[in-house]
Amino acid sequence: GVGAAGAMQEEHHILDEKEIIDGVDELGVLLYGHAWNAYWYGSQLSIDEARDIAPNQNATGMQVTSAVLAGMVWALENPEAGIVESDEMDYRRCLEVQRPYLGPLNGFYTDWTPLVDRPGFFPEDIDESDPWQFRNVLVHE
């Protein structure tokens, strides 16, 4: 397992849709290594908001499938484009399609770095002089 300085949680249980009674799924992007340390921007969709949009669904499913829907709409609207990379698509149009399924979109600065609580129980190859070096986020399993 990863996270918590490599310590695996003792019990595992995958929730089914009926067991999710409350909460918010946060799906976004972390932009880091700049003068303000790190900035997270993304969707914060509650289970209630997700079920209002599509009964018997969950927030993660709505967030993820909204991207699939946006890709399909973009492909239908651009039939001559052929095979493209995601960064070649019009992100504004994709977000326009996705927006009804994402809930609030918010951004936050954070002082968190990959060096928080590290090293853990075992020595690690980390660069303490620059928290955002790739080796500090690389997962070894």
Give a quick set of tags describing it.
alpha+beta, 2 domains, 141 residues, three-stranded antiparallel beta sheet, 3 helices
Short description:
This protein has helices at 47-53, 59-77, 91-98; strands at 24-34, 37-46, 105-110.
Structure, described:
It is a single chain. With 141 residues, the chain is of the alpha+beta class. It has 2 domains: 91 residues, no CATH class; 27 residues, no CATH class. Helices cover 24% and strands 19% of the residues. The chain has a 3-stranded antiparallel sheet with strand order 1-2-3. The chain is globular. 9% of the residues are buried.
Class by SSE composition: alpha+beta
Topology as H/E string?
Answer: EEHHHE
Q: Which residues form runs of ≥5 with pLDDT under 50?
A: none
Mean pLDDT: 91
The percent range for helix content is 10-25%
Shape: globular
Helix/strand layout:
Blueprint: E1 24-34, E2 37-46, H1 47-53, H2 59-77, H3 91-98, E3 105-110
Antiparallel strand pairs: 1-2, 2-3
Helix pairs in contact: 2-3
